[in-house]
Amino acid sequence: DDLTIREPSVSVTVTPDNANADASDTVTWTVVVTAAAGTGANAYDVDLTDVIPSGLTYVGASLTNTGGVAPTSLGEAGGTVSANWANLTPGQTSTFTFQTTVDAGVSLGQAITDIAGAQSTFDSERDGTDGEAGTPDNYAASGDGDVTVLFNPPVLSVDSTSEASNGGDATVGEIVRYRFVVRVPESTTSD
User: Fold this and answer.
1) Whose C-alpha in 6, 14, 77, 106 is 20 to 30 A from the C-alpha of 147?
2) pLDDT for 175
3) Are 115 and 9 contacting, i.e. CB atoms less than 8 angstroms apart?
4) Residues 35 and 7: beta-carbon distance below 8 Å
5) How many helices and strands (H and E) does the chain possess?
6) Under a CB-based contact definition with an 8 Å cutoff, are residues 152 and 166 in contact?
7) What distance, in Å, lies between the first and last C-alpha atoms of the chain?
8) Strand ranges in 52-173 using DSSP code E only, listed in sequence order
9) What is the dihedral of CA 34, 38, 42, 44, to 10 degrees?
10) Cα dihedral: 49, 53, 57, 61 (round 10)
11) Within 10 Å of residue 29's Cβ, how many Cβ atoms?
């Protein structure tokens, strides 16, 4: 006879609604926690922590459970979002969202990564007596999402020439009118 060991598996995804943002823009983050369907084992005491990274500021009262299994607890304190589920059965998901604003001191082209991590235990280890050295095995998973502060280099384009028949191409002796467009993003730069 074969012995099949079934262990829980939890995954975490973190997705921003806008992967490119300026300073002071609001970004909505969607976090999805999923207990893998094929494991045959429940994930217990699932604890998720998402420390909001430098360059982003949490928008008060924006944390909301939007689908799936509602967390036992869901909150934010001091820039850390936390959630707990007493039990996730195989195939169950839970989705929540929260908002941040991009801080004024970010640099052009800076990538800001938000990482959420989750830990869970297996049913027979909830009392702390099983596992190596009498401590429970913790199962860990994490997910991340990126926001990049916009960097738009200047664009130089030919606006018109003195000869309409040349289709926008200039020839020697023509008068050329050009347009120089600079989009100034909301951020800081040392240059």
Assistant:
1) 77
2) 74
3) no
4) no
5) 0, 13
6) no
7) 70
8) 56-58, 64-68, 73-77, 80-88, 93-102, 111-121, 139-149, 155-161
9) -40
10) -10
11) 24
Give the full edge-to-edge strand order of the sheet including 43-51. 20-21, 139-149, 111-121, 43-51, 80-88, 73-77
Cβ(126)–Cβ(120) under 8 Å?
Answer: no
Q: State the 10-residue block means of pLDDT for the chain, 191 residues long.
A: 83 96 94 94 94 97 98 98 96 98 89 95 59 64 91 63 62 73 60 56
Closest among 8, 31, 28, 15 to 93, alpha carbons compared: 31
CB 120 within 8 A of CB 92: no
Q: At which residue do the structure tokens 């936390």 appear? A: 82
Q: Classify 66 as helix, strand or coil.
A: strand
Sign of the C-alpha dihedral, residues 156, 162, 164, 169?
A: negative
User: CA angle 177-180-183, nearest 5°?
Assistant: 155
